[in-house]
């Protein structure tokens, strides 16, 4: 079979998953990653619908179920810390019985471990130029080496360097949603036991949760903002921006923010989506957030990465070396699925971050009322219907 020497740029969940499936089909896979190692930490993520089928076909479903967060309950609290509304963890997270909530870092390490034999990983390096030639794609790396590959796959996130090289600058494809997110590990000073607490202020939401097998807790911040100008590699500047956004906020926010400087896994980024008319150009193709970021607000970023990697690998294997036919088939199958999941992001973030004090007061009153009225479960199921529909909006190839 032709076109089997593949370079994957990015060792996130999308890139590692693609490496898993391509190697299983007999491809030679090289994965290059700018970071020095697989990234630990990160927020909890849900695997549901079609993504759960992919995990099962990988043969790691039992391992994934064993690493579930086991969050038992979730509550919305007011500034005084009083629980306005509480529900079980699955209902709070919009999960059905088969869905699995895990920490992103745990899933990442599991999948990486399943690909270390037979896949070449190059950490601390990145692609700096791509040139189509009659022999294939000539890739030049930051380390100075140059090699030719049959195909190149960009799996390097919303701000994909591979996409910029093959398609053009970010501003053509990345749509800012007007919100920022920060996640990091903090001491579990509230003594939470597999519980999540969420505080909502005008334009600012903060939450903290503990999970099984973790001594500490995670803090997560979501806030509305005009575009912020900052260095994406300057952590100190990002910490200052986060502190400024939550200055004067109540509840446990000041104490959670005091732990940011000691956290080993600080993340700060804008929420955005990637919209492209086509995900391939010549011998280069994109998957995951690089192709169609739906934003963390969708709750489906990891699922899109898992499903996209599986579908692309399946179509490449089925096409017998005709990469153009494989790329076309990949897009035809994935685009309706991506469309349904991208719709979730803007709708969800408006419920997660409320813009005014009036909205916050109304929402707290409704949550308190909902906790007492009969038929609450049916109402919540109705609210979560779009998520379940989007998660299953694809038929996977065999």
Automatic annotation (TrEMBL):
Gene3D superfamilies: D-Amino Acid Oxidase, subunit A, domain 2, FAD/NAD(P)-binding domain. SUPFAM superfamilies: FAD/NAD(P)-binding domain. Pfam families: FAD_binding_3. One of its GO terms (molecular function) is FAD binding. InterPro entries: FAD-bd, FAD/NAD-bd_sf, FAD_aromatic-hydroxylase. PANTHER family: MONOOXYGENASE (PTHR46865:SF2), OXIDOREDUCTASE-RELATED (PTHR46865). This is 2-polyprenyl-6-methoxyphenol hydroxylase-like FAD-dependent oxidoreductase.
């Amino acid at each position: 079979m032709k076109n089997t020497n593949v370079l994957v740029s990015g060792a996130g969940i999308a890139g590692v998953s693609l490496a898993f499936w391509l190697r299983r089909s007999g491809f030679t896979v090289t994965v290059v990653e700018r970071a020095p190692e697989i990234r630990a930490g990160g927020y909890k993520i849900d695997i549901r619908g079609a993504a759960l089928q992919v995990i099962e076909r990988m043969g790691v479903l039992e391992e994934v179920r064993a690493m579930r967060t086991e969050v038992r309950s979730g509550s919305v609290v007011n500034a005084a810390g009083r629980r306005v509304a509480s529900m079980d963890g699955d209902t709070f997270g919009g999960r059905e019985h088969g869905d699995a909530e895990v920490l992103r870092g745990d899933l990442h390490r599991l999948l990486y471990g399943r690909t270390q034999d037979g896949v070449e990983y190059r950490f601390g390096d990145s692609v700096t130029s791509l040139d189509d030639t009659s022999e294939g794609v000539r890739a030049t790396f930051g380390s100075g080496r140059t090699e030719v590959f049959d195909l190149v796959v960009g799996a390097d996130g919303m701000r994909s360097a591979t996409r910029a090289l093959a398609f053009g600058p970010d501003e053509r494809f990345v749509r800012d949603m007007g919100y920022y997110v920060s996640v990091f590990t903090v001491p579990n000073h509230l003594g939470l036991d597999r519980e999540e607490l969420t505080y909502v202020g005008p334009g600012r939401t903060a939450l903290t949760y503990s999970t099984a097998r973790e001594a500490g807790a995670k803090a997560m911040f979501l806030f509305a903002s005009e575009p912020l100008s900052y260095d994406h590699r300057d952590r100190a500047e990002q910490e200052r921006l986060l502190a400024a956004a939550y200055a004067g906020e109540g509840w446990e926010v000041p104490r959670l923010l005091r732990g940011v400087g000691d956290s080993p896994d600080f993340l700060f980024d804008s929420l955005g989506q990637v919209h492209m008319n086509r995900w391939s150009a010549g011998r280069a193709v994109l998957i995951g957030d690089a192709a169609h970021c739906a934003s963390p607000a969708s709750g489906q970023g990891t699922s899109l990465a898992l499903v996209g990697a599986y579908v692309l690998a399946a179509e490449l294997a089925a096409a017998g070396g005709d990469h153009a036919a494989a790329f076309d088939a990949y897009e035809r199958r994935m685009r309706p699925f991506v469309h349904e999941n991208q719709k979730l992001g803007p709708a969800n973030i408006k419920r997660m971050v409320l813009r005014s004090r009036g909205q916050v007061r109304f929402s707290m009153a409704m949550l308190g009322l909902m906790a007492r009225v009969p038929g609450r479960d049916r109402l919540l199921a109705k609210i979560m219907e779009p998520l379940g529909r989007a998660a299953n909006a694809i038929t996977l190839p065999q």
